[in-house]
Amino acid sequence: MPLIYGGFGLVLLALWIFCLLDVIITAEQDCRNLPKGLWILIVLFLPEIGSILWLVAGRPQTVTRPGGPLYKGDTGRFPEYDRPGRFVPSNPDDDEEFLRRCRERAEEQRRAYHERQQQKNQDE
Fold first, then answer.
1. Which residues lie closer than 8 Å to 27 by C-beta, 6 or more apart?
2. DSSP code at position 80
């Protein structure tokens, strides 16, 4: 029986530490229902009840971190297609420069292929 109570006590201690650090890390404007300083006092002096109250009523609905999301597909502050100053034509046919470069590159590749074929036929 003492082992069960000890394990429960460790879980409560871990919950209290998590909630206390979470309140401290959370930005002032993200705290719900009460000011951040009051949340710190509640969680600090009423460990079990304060921790549960923080999770239910004080913790921000969405966590905002500076610098964007912290996951494998992180694209930085701006998603790829919402970057300020980025020009994207609505239709590929509208970008004449891009189409011209594509045609020139295709023609260059055709020429190189034909030269390799001619070289291969001469070597045989």
1. 64
2. G
Amino acid identity of residue 8, one-letter, is F
| CA geometry: angle 84, 85, 89, nearest 5 deg | 110
pTM of the model: 0.48
The CB density around residue 55, as the number of other CB atoms within 10 Å, is: 14
DSSP annotation of 35: -
Task: Give me Rg for the CA atoms of the chain.
Answer: 31
* pLDDT in 10s for each residue of the chain, 124 residues: 666 778 888 999 999 999 999 999 998 888 889 999 999 999 999 989 999 999 999 888 765 555 554 455 555 555 655 556 666 666 766 678 888 889 999 999 999 999 999 998 888 7
Residue 87 is encoded by which pair of tokens?
């020009």
Which residue's entry shows tokens 């609905």? Answer: 61
